[in-house]
Write a structure and sequence with these properties.
This protein has one domain (11-242): Jelly Rolls. The chain has 304 residues and is mainly beta. The protein has one helix and 22 strands. The strands form four sheets. Strands 2, 14, 15, 16, 17, 18, 19 and 20 form an eight-stranded antiparallel β-sheet that branches. A seven-stranded antiparallel β-sheet has the order 3-4-5-12-7-10-13, with no helix packed on it.
Length: 304
């Protein structure tokens, strides 16, 4: 999924910062224009830009709508597409053509550069789109696409966690990761104790139902040091986490880079039609890059 804001703000992440627990309120962003589906963006947040290597969390639906995101570029990240209801068709510049359905994972590694599009029919859509920042030594890997229709489940009393990325409680997803992290959809039915990696910081997002101590909307941040999470209720939540990301990065529009000049170069390549390949089969023009801000983009810490 693209960041379709016409005037995207510079998002600067990486480095150290405070570790207090907090609620990260989302902001509403129209996906594709004022009449399009609205998404709730909880990462990057005004106070906390990342949780582990996770640097972008958009939650959308449930809503009867059609999604149409034209071809657009990415660098330095992985896109993670996860649906609860509906279907989305993915195309990319590698020639991939894959429909994603609930319970299956579409994972695209941008590396040095890739472009893709996403479309859906007019139907009930409910899901999340996430980005994972690639660490410095892996950020220029060859672009790649994976689809995983079957994922491992870590079950326990009162919960069943589908492991989307990384590892949870001894279960490991087949999806490629480039830093220690976890992403899981956790179905809760009753009282449960979900295992956590104490080396990770974590984020929790209520997807549906009612689960204590969560509420609809914000992403709840948990600092490192916890080896378990007590929850109760009935519903589904998203669990993300990872080792705190120690690098400084610059995130602007759909690019993750390390400094202003890299972002300028990425934008130039996209505008000139070089470096990102082409998406075949999409009926429409690629998404134009927005104008850069009038000041230089500077990398800063992952939290304010």
């Amino acid at each position: 999924m693209s960041n379709l804001e016409r005037e995207p703000r510079e998002v600067r992440c990486g480095g150290g910062g405070g570790e207090e627990s907090e609620l990260l309120e989302g902001r509403s962003v129209p996906l594709g224009g004022p009449r399009a589906m609205a998404v709730s963006r909880t990462l990057p947040n005004v106070r906390r830009r990342m949780i582990g290597a996770w640097c972008f969390v958009d939650a959308y639906g449930p809503e009867e709508t059609a999604m149409r995101v034209p071809p657009h570029p990415h660098t330095g990240l992985q896109t993670v597409s996860w649906l609860l209801t509906g279907r989305v068709l993915h195309r990319d510049s590698l020639g991939s053509l894959q429909e994603i359905r609930p319970g299956s994972l579409n994972l695209m590694t941008a590396g040095r550069g890739i472009s893709h599009s996403e479309e859906s029919r007019h139907e009930a859509l409910h899901g999340v789109q996430l980005w994972v920042a690639l660490p410095g030594e892996r950020r220029e890997v060859a672009p790649a696409f994976e689809h995983h229709a079957v994922l491992p489940v870590r079950a326990g009393t009162g919960f069943a966690a589908t492991v989307i990325m990384g590892s949870l409680g001894g279960e490991t997803s087949p999806a490629t990761v480039h830093s220690p992290l976890v992403g899981a959809e956790v179905a809760v039915d009753g009282s449960a104790v979900v295992p956590l990696d104490p080396a990770f910081e974590h984020g929790l997002l209520l997807l549906d139902g009612a689960i204590e101590p969560l509420r609809p909307g914000p992403l709840r941040y948990l600092p490192p040091g916890r080896d378990s999470l007590r929850v109760s209720g009935q519903g589904r939540m998203l669990l993300i986490g990872g080792v705190p990301f120690g690098e400084e990065i610059v995130m602007w529009w759909n690019f993750v880079g390390r400094d202003h000049d890299e972002i300028v170069a990425f934008r130039k390549e996209w505008t000139e039609g070089t470096g990102f390949g082409s998406v075949q089969g999409f009926d429409g023009e690629p998404l134009p890059a927005p104008a850069l801000p009038g000041t230089r983009l500077r990398p800063r810490g992952r939290v304010r």
